[in-house]
Design goal:
Layout: H1 14-18, E1 21-25, E2 28-32, E3 37-42, E4 45-49, E5 56-58, E6 61-63, E7 75-78, E8 81-86, H2 90-94, H3 106-116, E9 123-127, H4 133-139, E10 144-149, H5 152-165, E11 170-174, E12 186-191, H6 200-206, E13 207-217, H7 220-231, E14 236-243, E15 249-252, E16 255-258, E17 268-274
């Protein structure tokens, strides 16, 4: 999934990004005759510098605060290590949000965006918020997000993350998604709750005709009950249910193979449309 460029994030306070910098250190290899092979002489690193008014300390030495006023792409050597300076984009800050509950991984957020056609005009209802992983990412793309959770600590954490990311088009509310009475203005309703079948009536009230309902569940039994509840509704149709598995590959000369560990099962996604 392509990263979102800062220039299109009109809902985000751009000054927030101006106050931060990103340090990138590439992996570097060198052929050593004594070993008869290439060895890593510089391991990759990434550091989000949230306070550029102070020096940044690394295990190799200190990067002076004056360096952070340099332009993007500037290089700085500390010992035999070389760092590149960049301005952070949304994804760099997003990966640093505070968490309590496990968040939906990026590999599962991608299909939610693409298969529902989410865009700058979309209005989204989300439940339950958890740490806000899904709702925060969707808010960076669409017109407005309204998210609910029954735990006050989750609501407070999402509000903290909203402030951290500088978003101004998302509401974090305390409430039971099974009981609220929304109007039919939403283009997308995302569900990550223990008993999603209980939210079908809420979805009927919340969604526009043509709107999408996406249920995310780590286990099959709740999803099965959700689908059975949807099938009883004449004005809903199940589009597809998918599971996304992600496998990285490594390239070392002519040794090209999948990495030993992969991001396996995280959850199932069921896509429904109101007709």
């Amino acid at each position: 999934m392509a990263f979102i460029k800062l220039s299109i994030l009109l809902k985000i306070d751009s000054q927030l990004f101006d106050r931060m910098k990103l340090l990138i250190k590439k992996e570097r290899r060198k052929f050593l005759e004594d070993f008869g092979r290439e060895v890593i002489v510089q391991k990759p690193e990434k550091h989000l510098i949230k306070d550029t008014s102070k020096d940044f300390h690394t295990q190799f030495g200190v990067i002076k605060k004056e360096f952070f006023s340099e332009g993007d792409g500037a290089k700085f050597a500390v010992g035999n290590q070389e760092y590149n300076l960049l301005s952070p984009s949304f994804i760099d800050l997003y990966l640093e949000i505070s968490r309590l509950a496990q968040i939906i991984p990026l590999k599962d957020i991608g299909p939610i965006i693409t298969l529902t056609g989410l865009n700058k005009d979309s209005i989204v209802l989300d439940a339950g918020s958890g740490s806000g992983g899904l709702s925060l990412f969707l808010a960076a793309i669409c017109k407005k997000v309204v998210t609910y959770d029954i735990k006050e600590q989750n609501v407070d954490l999402v509000r903290k993350n909203i402030k951290y990311l500088g978003l101004n088009n998302i509401e974090s509310n305390l409430g039971d998604i099974y009981k609220i009475d929304p109007d039919g203005k939403f283009d997308l309703f995302t569900l990550d709750v223990p008993e999603p079948w209980k939210a079908v009536e809420t979805a009927d009230k919340a969604l526009k005709v043509g709107g999408f309902l996406v249920c995310y569940s780590p286990c099959i039994p709740p999803l099965s009950e959700f689908i059975e509840a949807i099938k009883k509704k004449e004005n809903f149709t199940v589009l597809k249910t998918i599971e996304i598995l992600e496998r990285d590959w490594e390239f070392e000369g002519r040794k090209i193979r999948p990495k030993s560990q992969q991001i396996g099962h995280s959850g199932f996604l069921c896509f429904v449309r109101k007709i």
